[in-house]
Amino acid sequence: MNNRYDAFLIKYAEIGIKGKNRHVFEEALVRQIKIALRPCEGRFSVIRTYGRIFVEAQSEYDFEEVTEALSHVFGIRGICPVAEYEIMPVGELCSTAAAFLQAEYPVDEGTGFGTGGAAGAADGSGTVCPDAKNGAHTFKVHTRRMNKQYPQDSLEVNALVGQAVLEACPNMSVDVHTPEIMLSIEIREKIYIYSQMIPGPGGLPVGVGGKCMLLLSGGIDSPVAGYMVAKRGVRIDAVYFNAPPYTSERALQKVVDLAREISVYTGPIRLHNINFTEIQLYIYEKCPHDELTIIMRRYMMRIAERLAKENDCLGLVTGESIGQVASQTLAALAVTNEVCTLPVFRPLVGFDKEEIIQISRRIGTFETSILPYEDCCTIFVAKHPVTKPRAEVIRRHEQFLNEKIDEMVERAIETDEIIQI
Ligand code: ATP
Ligand code: MG
Questions:
Q1: I need a surface site. Which of 53, 196, 325, 333 has the fewest CB within 10 A?
Q2: Which of these, 110, 154, 266, lies nearest to 201 by C-alpha position?
Q3: Residue located nearest, by CA, to atom 23 of ligand 1
Q4: How do residues 391-419 score in pLDDT, each as one tens digit?
């Protein structure tokens, strides 16, 4: 193989995953890694061994593509590109390890010292320390010897390899306390060497935390909310309330695109497309216009909850944030919440719009979210919506809908079109 690295060692946070949990966590992580690698060129096997997860390349692959795909998998703290060798005597290991490090941090011809070097330091900082003046680096060797047949113990290997690196690399000096580069050597049935760690997204692998129903509109907030919940290990189904012909086919396409964009993180999503037009027009006809949004939102929540329960979801997720708009004051959120029995998770409650935008740029949904196609709420918004709705008043006004609303809700649920993302 031409690729410099034979495998990727996946580092994950181990706190809280002892005992039985650990098994579940690792299996979910392996599954999500396999899903993430599916679109990548090349063949890989994902192996759990000695409390480690390795992604082993079985063919040529594109390094950027693979590390990019892995960097979207929740539960991964870091991705270490690894070179793999057959067991060799320690003398040979010394020269191999020194050559590996030289290739990672090549000496710059001009200065006699190294260039910027590899993409990430092994300490998890993700970058090589910039005060590596003139391309000089400090390092430390860290050996783990699981294979007790190997004649030298880990301290001996550390010392011998350290010495060999010093002799071979003029730009390297030892710092055992805060090295920029951790040269890691693992001796098992093979020998693994690595020195970089590309940061992962953290969180928990999707699937360990059950499933939620995300209310996904075409806006900036709800895709970010879905991302945040998935980051804690929760699988996502989504529901979009569509209002044709007031909303165009493009508006639906935008939501499908957003679902696809977050699915890079969340894994497959079942998107429920619900026709909400009839309900919306009925509310518009019967209820005070300053209460339209809040009453509409209550019906969305009711329908979302029905779908959630039918699809084994343990909660609802919205992109609401306290005080963002009139329908999201504390009073309005309380009135909206009232119609649900499942917990409603609002992972963005404490975020300013600017902070939400930053995340949406980082995860790649922003450009799609700001496309102009109307979503159903913007067409039916009142000029002066209530900001302090009272539950008993809203309940009373919802009674104006008594004649037809139940059958309309049933009909809306029947329109459910499932789009597999
Ligand atoms: P977003 O919050 O996604 O940016 P927005 O700000 O236009 O869109 P709001 O009016 O703030 O949407 O709605 C608050 C939340 O209600 C959304 O985050 C979303 O979870 C849910 N929601 C609103 N409209 C819809 C819809 N048409 N379909 C599904 N969910 C919706
Ligand atoms: Mg919003």
A1: 325
A2: 266
A3: 217
A4: 999 999 999 999 999 999 999 999 999 99
Alpha carbon of residue 20 to chain centroid: 24
Q: Is the CB of 220 under 6 A from ligand 1?
A: yes
| Residue reference for tokens 């950027």 | 64
Give yes or no for residue 216 CB within 6 A of ligand 1: yes
Across 300-309, 316-325, 373-382, 411-420, least confident range:
373-382
> Is residue 256 within a helix (H) or strand (E), and if so which, with residue range?
helix 249-266
Q: Which two tokens stand for residue 203?
A: 């969180």
CA distance 321 to 328: 7
Among the bound ligands, the one closest to the CA of 240 = 1
Which atom in ligand 1 lies closest to the alpha carbon of residue 239?
Answer: 29
Q: 347 C-alpha vs ligand 2 centroid, how far in Å?
A: 12
Token pair recorded at residue 319: 């992109």
Residue type, 136: A
